[in-house]
């Protein structure tokens, strides 16, 4: 049940927020201002707006299904066998679920290539991108794995650890509509905060995954390169972070609300 609810929540979320995500991607990769990123998408044309949506649909739907489902399964398993405090046990379950999600890195990899306008002439669809990467070996599919691991585990731990306490701080929900609002606020708030905290990690991931072939540079080396390119200013590493917070607020608000709604329904 948790897997199905997570999958449906992700599907709804991706369809609604994909255009915003695409604009953020351009900002992360090229350090553009929001207006410049919008202009770039406008020049690309409406026919390319949803170009690259298949990988995130496949990746995010599966990823969130695993995120919610495995968290519940790992929690039940660890709580039944471990003697550690519940908080520690559930934190470990969240990290394990996030680490398992990293198996889906190839979908994020292909999504990055399809959203980068520099590769528009080279790739026309998801299948073609996968075929091109195949020539470089299995490792090429997992370029950018380290930042994904650094992001998934800790963010899952914070999401599942804080979701309950935040909801308890909100006014008590007495109707179905108030439950929806409460779930949206809870998910949206967490999504915004976590997206901001891990934004520089995603910037590094995007830069890594935009490359095809060549040296596999370390996380620290790519971060140092971006740091120099952006005038050694922390604020420049967060270019696009404000819009990403809004997108994540909407995205995780939708995901959390849909998940909780379906969980009660099924």
UniProtKB/TrEMBL annotation:
Membrane-related topology note: Multi-pass membrane protein
Residues in coiled coil: none
Pfam families: Mito_carr
Main subcellular location: mitochondrion
Keywords on record: Membrane, Mitochondrion, Mitochondrion inner membrane, Repeat, Transmembrane, Transmembrane helix, Transport
Source superkingdom: Eukaryota
Claim: Ion transport is one of the keywords in the record: no
An example Gene Ontology CC term for this record: mitochondrial inner membrane
Solcar repeat residue numbers: 1-77, 85-169, 178-265
Listed GO biological process terms: mitochondrial NAD transmembrane transport
Molecular-function annotations in GO: NAD transmembrane transporter activity
Subcellular location: Mitochondrion inner membrane
Family from the record: Belongs to the mitochondrial carrier (TC 2.A.29) family.
The protein's name in its UniProt record: S2551 protein
Protein species of origin: Phainopepla nitens (Phainopepla)
Taxon lineage: Eukaryota, Metazoa, Chordata, Craniata, Vertebrata
């Amino acid at each position: 049940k948790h897997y199905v609810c997570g999958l449906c929540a992700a599907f709804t979320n991706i369809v609604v927020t994909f255009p915003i995500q695409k604009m953020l991607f351009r900002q992360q990769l090229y350090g553009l201002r929001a207006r410049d990123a919008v202009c770039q998408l406008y020049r690309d044309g409406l026919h390319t707006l949803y170009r690259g949506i298949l990988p995130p649909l496949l990746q995010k739907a599966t990823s969130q299904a695993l995120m919610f489902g495995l968290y519940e399964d790992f929690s039940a398993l660890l709580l039944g066998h471990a003697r550690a405090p519940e908080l520690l046990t559930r934190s470990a379950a969240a990290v394990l679920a996030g680490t398992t999600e990293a198996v889906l890195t190839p979908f994020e990899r292909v999504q990055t290539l399809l959203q980068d306008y520099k590769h528009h002439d080279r790739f026309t669809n998801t299948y073609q991108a996968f075929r091109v990467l195949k020539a470089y070996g299995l490792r090429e599919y997992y370029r950018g794995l380290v930042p994904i691991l650094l992001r998934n585990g800790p963010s899952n731990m914070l999401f599942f650890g804080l979701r309950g306490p935040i909801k308890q701080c909100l006014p008590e929900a007495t109707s179905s509509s108030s439950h929806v609002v409460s779930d949206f606020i809870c998910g949206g708030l967490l999504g915004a905060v976590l997206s901001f905290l891990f934004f520089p990690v995603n910037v590094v991931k995007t830069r890594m995954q935009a490359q095809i072939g060549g040296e596999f540079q370390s996380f620290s080396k790519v971060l140092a390169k971006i740091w120099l390119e952006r005038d050694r200013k922390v604020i420049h590493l967060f270019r696009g972070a404000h819009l990403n917070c809004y997108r994540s607020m909407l995205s995780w608000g939708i995901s959390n609300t849909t998940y909780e709604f379906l969980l009660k329904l099924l």
